[in-house]
């Protein structure tokens, strides 16, 4: 979307609720943004927008497209099953689902994907755990074990506690 100079000034100074001024930069706190305040990378201003986000249950490609039903457009969320060795496969998935985003958005999106893989490979080379790549099943097993421990403690009898009255 191309904005006129007047629209850019109005949006930049008045309409953005996610803009936060820092000492060295202006930051965007929109949950789907790249964390930089730039109207070409703005998920609200742009009709077509895409980003990769981290959530508790995994890594997702978020895509915004215009919609006749909603002024703000529709948001699609596509799960990315990122592993250390499937970068080309993920790039292909992203390309297949990518809307008509700006060139700047495309560059930032693929830079972010490259950074994710670089970080994961760096952690792997250092022998560090990559928590987001862990299977959710392991977490469920741990909670089941904890549940068994809790039920064992409930079966134990607790000693009687004597209540003292503080009357003067």
Describe the structure.
The chain has helices at residues 5-15, 87-97, 103-125, 136-155; strands at residues 19-21, 26-28, 49-55, 58-65, 74-80. The chain has one domain: Enolase-like, domain 1. The protein is globular and about 50 Å long. The chain is of the alpha+beta class and 168 residues long.
List keywords for this structure.
168 residues, 39% helix, two-stranded antiparallel ribbon, 5 strands, 4 helices, alpha+beta, three-stranded antiparallel sheet, globular, Enolase-like, domain 1
Would you spell out the secondary-structure blueprint of this structure?
Elements: H1 5-15, E1 19-21, E2 26-28, E3 49-55, E4 58-65, E5 74-80, H2 87-97, H3 103-125, H4 136-155
Antiparallel strand pairs: 1-2, 3-4, 4-5
Report a brief summary of the structure.
With 168 residues, the protein is an alpha+beta fold.
Distance between the termini: 77 Å
Sketch the topology as an H/E string, one letter per element.
HEEEEEHHH
Number of strands: 5
Query: How many H/I helices?
Result: 4
Secondary-structure-based class equals alpha+beta
What Rg is obtained from the alpha carbons, in whole angstroms? 24 Å
- Poorly predicted ranges (pLDDT <50, ≥5 residues)? 136-155
Level of helix content?
Answer: 25-40%
- Within the CATH hierarchy, at the fold level, what is the topology? Enolase-like, domain 1
> How would you sum up the major sheet?
3 strands, antiparallel
CATH C-level name: Alpha Beta
Approximately how much beta-strand content do the residues carry?
A: 15-25%
CATH architecture: 2-Layer Sandwich
Number of individual domains: 1
Strand order in the sheet with the most strands: 3-4-5
Average per-residue pLDDT, rounded, comes to 81
Bulk shape = globular
